[in-house]
Amino acid sequence: MSAKTDVRTYAGFRAMTILCLIILYAPLVVVTIYSFNASRSLTVWEGLSLRWYVDVFVGPESAKFQQAAINSFSIAIIAATVATAVVTAAATAIVRGGKFRLRTPSFGLITLPIMVPEIVLAVSTLIFFNSIGFTRGYMTILVAHIAFCIPFAYLPIQARMQGIEDTYEHAAMDLYATKAQAFRRVLLPLMMPGIISGFLLAFIVSLDDFIITNFVKGAGIETLPTAIFGSVKQGLKPNIMAISTMLLGLSVVMVTISYFASKWDNTK
Amino acid sequence: MAGGAVSGGSVASDTYKQVRHWLLMPSWLVLGLFVFAPVCVMVIYSFLTKEFRGGVIWEPTLAAYDQFFFDRGLFGDSDPVLQWTYIEIFWRSIWQAGLATFLSLVIGFPTAYFIATRPEKTRALWVFLVTIPYWVNLLIRTVSMKFLLRDEGPMNDALLSIGLIGEPLQIVNTNLAVQLGLFYSYLPFMVLPIYASVERYNFAMSEAAADLYATKWTTLRRIVLPAVKPGVIAGCVLVFVPSLGAFLAPDLLGGAKNFMIGSLIEDQFKGNAGNWPFGAAASMILLSMVLVVLILFARQQRRAEAAT
Question: Cβ distance A108 to B36 under 8 Å?
């Protein structure tokens, strides 16, 4: 069918799609290119160089960024692990627990952190920690991250479990496996793609968070986003471009893995 | 939306019925203690008396809400006059979020439609391309946007060198920059639900319309659009709601003159204002606006489901 007679296609929609992708990627591509700029100035291009990447690791601000990176990654790993464990149990109850009164409220509670605007979540968490007399610091960031990572970890795990028929577990139990064994040896391995996908999404969400972290962190503790924000407030600098490009690359890699994990069909 | 996701599962099973409450216990504890309870405490705080520079005195008052809507003079004893400062900030936020939503719709609809009409094999790849930027750190994306739009940034350089403009466009620190930033932050949210609707759309209806001599644009307006309306509305809600409470785009791209709700709230806790009850009250008003949008949305989606 030619484009003229095809009722499905519209002139200009392809151009709009390309425009959309250009808009989405242009800022990221530009920052990536300029992170390799040899110049101290952001405006003048002086040729390719890894100077600013070196600066991130050994430059005057390297100690600050290193500590921020350690905080960010350790919080993201712990928060994503705890959130994934918690929601795997919850998904089992909601998908494999029959119908019960608390089912819908539980689902509502789990998705609550994505319904409430992030700034409101940040305010309420800060107020809460303050009212119970918790000192703000590493632990408050960690606890807040576990809580708001939960829906992001939950959704791919629930989606995966809904796609697995329970005949596999029943077959195992017909062969005298206990429910715990059927869960551990049959359901859990089948769930793996969903669990990996959920873990990675929770990890990225935790690693990326700025607003909530900025509220609940105490003075003197920084994560990568809060450190970057602090730096940017003083003015854009080339070493920020380099850090941004590294984080950007990491996110793209993780999302790609998560994407292929969720597509991976191991039930056959 | 929420109900559909639970009941929509194809597999109904009750294998783990006996232990279901134990399995749910950890998530109840974490979310109840660190999300639900804090929101409740925030509600209480919005009715307390402020303490100088942060914190509260446990004395119930409506002062925070009063300060939001009324001006009672310097010493607080004149007759209340409606005061527009904060209402204007909220109104500006709604306006900015609305424009960002409109812009996302203009770009997002054709994109979603185009992707949904690709051969089945390549669709997933297109969708993936649209979603990648969403997973890149929002702060980094906003900083990148600022870098690109700066007066002496690459975009102005490029436009100057091809002679399209005589002097650099000043975009950063204007309302336009905030709209562009919000639009850029949440554009993928517009594309995905519309894509999902168009993918389910039965193109035989378009063919029928064409057979009855409808032009293509008439078909789009009268046949396709009504059929994919739930997706369009979902996309608009998903862009509008986070834009409304956004902090990074207005803060980094808008500068001091283009305050939005998010900046107003932040200023009460992290900035100079230091009025916690007022910040809690502003958060409450934002939360109520979002809830109204979500409730209207849920009702609309249920009606649309019932109609099909």
Answer: no
